[in-house]
Amino acid sequence: MIPTTNPTAGALAQQALSDKQSYHSMDVANALCNDILKEIWKCIDIHYNIIDEPEFCIVVLLVGDPLIKNLKRRKFYAWPYMPKPRPNQSVFLFRKDTDDIQRLWVLPECATMTLLSEASHVRKQWATMKKWSDAFFAGMFWELIREENGIELLSEQEYLEMHREELIQAGCKEPTVRIVEPFDFDKSFGVKVVDSNKIVKLQFS
């Protein structure tokens, strides 16, 4: 194996923990969004010929790491429909005919969504996000997004229902509901992760 000089995610997380400097939340947000447009275009290029639709959605998720609690990862992927809304999610619409990207929505973490929805008044910069949060909890999300953006794009469930027969003919099986026993990690790993900030070696038994 060729050795690499790039630091691991764990090493970077440990370095971040040892940094005592204070950072403004907006600086952190700007850093997370610094190269987001470049990554969105990469995602578009990958899916342009894969998705046989005149327009499709690019989804950006901000997720945590299961072992390193102060590590955040951004995940980019594309769907031919509007995905189900969820916290820490941003969704953009790409149109092939105009080569344009349009922001559809940006949802913050769950606690922030709840606070925004419960608040009677918010500052102007939070007004749009409050509308999205309100619509999310009221079950009227798709209606709001279509009205705001003047689009008729289908949701995930609507799209799958419309193309149900095509998917079945293509070999896709209809999902069946079954109860699955929760996976017991204690049976598979010889050690437990006690402190998620410490790098540990997992040994299979």
Number-wise, the strands total: 4
Poorly predicted residue ranges: 22-31, 182-205
Rg, nearest Å: 21 Å
Profile the largest sheet. 4 strands, antiparallel
Strand order of the largest sheet: 2-1-3-4
Helix content: 25-40%
Outline the structure in words:
- It is a single chain.
- The model is unreliable at 22-31 and 182-205 (pLDDT under 50).
- The chain has a four-stranded antiparallel β-sheet with strand order 2-1-3-4, sandwiched between helices.
- It has eight helices and four strands; from the N terminus they run αααββββααααα.
- It has helices at 9-18, 25-32, 36-47, 110-118, 127-138, 141-149, 156-162, 164-169; strands at 55-64, 72-79, 89-95, 100-107.
- A hairpin with a 4-residue loop joins strand 3 (89-95) and strand 4 (100-107).
- By secondary structure, the chain is of the alpha+beta class.
- The relative contact order is 0.11.
Keyphrases for this structure?
205 residues, alpha+beta, four-stranded antiparallel beta sheet, 8 helices, globular
